[in-house]
Specification:
The protein contains 16 helices and 11 strands. It is of the alpha/beta class and 343 residues long. The strands form 2 sheets. Strands 3, 4, 5, 6, 7, 8, 9, 10 and 11 form a 9-stranded parallel sheet that branches. Strands 1-2 form a two-stranded antiparallel sheet. It is globular, with a radius of gyration of 20 Å.
Length: 343
């Protein structure tokens, strides 16, 4: 599969952009385990236009993550165009690797974004969505892609027709989450319409499916049943970035890898913690690792007290000591798969 000139290989697995999750340290970690492409947390076009420091911080990417997409969102055409131009110049502005492509977020369902017409709120205004996409495509040299949903609700699943329109204004790949905005993340993702997009003979850009892929078998079924070119994985990576390696191994061999031992997870968590501190400083690096650390050990018995330490300690040395204790106490155990794959 190729997006523009970016070669991602056959049946690539992509890391979904997730606010407060897919920072550089986590993206790098997922890349180690075989994510073919990763994306930044979504960046507010309004924040960029108004020179918000936090928005520009999300531009920083690393060579180790490449290829990487910077994802932007908003509902004002001029602001979206300007933010796309800024994202296109990310390397010049903040250093690092920069962006290999620009992705537009038309899929986020949270109220503070969709409720004001951005993210999946744009599903209510498909003409405006297409116009913004066209303007962004014309404003930058890098490939432009879109991530969106099936529609606003069950009565407005417009994605099959909308996919054609977005392709016609120049996007070079489309990712579809198999839910409406009204569903948020509830119920099961419906991949049927994603399959219909792939069946459309007019479609020639890569179609990437997203939603509920939380095991190697589900990934294999999505490829075989719906014919998607790639799969994007989001929530199932929480505390489980090695899911990319597990899925790739299953796709290549038809066999499932054994669960990673606690000792191996400790080594990974320690490395991830050190990266976070190196990139963001001790205070912020530790605080932002809390959402990850306890998730690495989901499913362990009698873990409540130790988990509390992982989410309250501020001293990196004490956190590393706690991780060492986890290795000595639960070292060779492997939590059951259902403790890892649950959404």
């Amino acid at each position: 599969m190729k997006i523009g000139n970016i070669e991602l290989g056959e049946k690539p697995l992509l890391l979904a952009p997730m606010e407060d999750v897919t920072d550089a340290s986590f993206r790098w970690t997922c890349k180690e385990f075989g994510a073919a492409m990763v994306y930044t947390e979504f960046v507010s076009s309004d924040g960029l236009v108004h020179d918000a420091r936090k928005s520009f911080e999300k531009f920083l990417t690393l060579e180790e993550e490449a290829p990487i997409g910077i994802q932007i969102y908003g509902n004002l055409p001029d602001a979206m165009v300007e933010s796309a131009r800024l994202a296109d110049r990310a390397q010049e502005i903040v250093g690092g690797h920069g962006a290999d492509l620009i992705d537009i977020n038309f899929g986020c369902p949270v109220r503070k974004i969709a409720g004001r017409g951005a993210g999946s709120g744009m599903m209510k205004e498909p003409d405006k969505m297409v116009a913004i996409t066209k303007a962004v495509v014309e404003a930058v040299d890098k490939p432009v892609t879109v991530k969106t949903r099936l529609g606003w609700d069950d009565d407005s699943k417009i994605i099959v027709e909308l996919a054609e329109r977005l392709q016609d204004v120049g996007i070079q790949a489309l990712t579809v989450h198999g839910r409406t905005r009204a569903q948020m993340y509830s119920g099961e993702a419906d991949w049927t319409l994603i399959g219909r997009i792939k069946e459309n003979p007019r479609m020639h850009i890569p179609i990437i499916g997203n939603g509920d892929i939380n095991s190697p078998r589900k990934a294999a079924e999505a490829f075989s049943r719906y014919g998607v070119d790639g799969i994007m994985i989001g929530r199932a990576t929480f505390g489980h970035p090695w899911i990319f390696r597990e899925i790739r191994h299953y796709l290549d061999t038809g066999e499932e890898l054994p669960q990673m031992s606690v000792r191996e997870r400790v080594e990974l968590a320690s490395r991830h913690l050190d990266r976070s501190i190196a990139l963001k400083g001790e205070r912020v690096g530790v605080l932002e690792m809390r959402r990850h650390l306890s998730c690495y050990f989901k499913g362990l018995p009698d873990f409540k007290e130790t988990r509390l330490k992982l989410v309250t300690l501020n001293d990196p040395a004490e956190l590393h000591a706690t991780l060492d204790f986890i290795a000595s106490r639960w070292g060779d155990e492997s939590p059951a798969a259902e403790g890892i794959y649950g959404l």
